Amino acid sequence: MEEQIPPSPATPVRTAKQPTPTTQAVELKSEKGVDYLRLQDLLKMGEWKAADQETADQILKAMGKDSWWQIESKDLLNFPCADLKTLDQLWVKYSNGKWGFNVQKQIYVACGAKLDGKYPGNEIWREFCCRVGWRKGGSYLNYSDLTFNLKNSSAGECPTVCGVKGLLEGGLGRDGKGFLLFSRIQTCKL
């Protein structure tokens, strides 16, 4: 069993399987025909907020949905692995390993959550949100209050589709489904 060191809110989680940025090109694979080129371009340019919004749009496309309100738990538990891998690799590469779904998953587990598809409870979810910078001073942040600043943000702040953006704009966080994507990361072996 790998040792995990709980981070402070601004310290990245370090484990034996820490995602590391790559200098190799990310293969933009999609099981659903989603084109990730625009997302890649936004990430290359450091347009983090626009890339976050593009990620949310591409996730909807990969699930064949027009609205976040249409998403059910089964959609997340069956999210296309190739698409999830592409999204994660893009974020990890262009953020130098600071952001991405796998980074978030590791922080989530370090907070005491299990990757069993069950809600971890409010205490663990709040701790996770504090560590990734979505909650400060006992309150959840508004989407407009996030830094989208690679240098000054918390590890795991982006993409926000599982949390802040979801809570405010009808995404995965609106009814406690965001954590399901972390279980899918485990299933897809990312």
TrEMBL record:
Residues 1-25 are annotated as: Disordered. Residues 1-10 have a biased composition (Pro residues). This is GUN4 domain-containing protein. GO terms for molecular function: tetrapyrrole binding. The lineage of its organism: Bacteria, Bacillati, Cyanobacteriota, Cyanophyceae, Oscillatoriophycideae. Pfam families: GUN4 (PF05419). Gene3D superfamilies: 1.25.40.620, Gun4-like. Residues 29-166 form the GUN4-like domain.
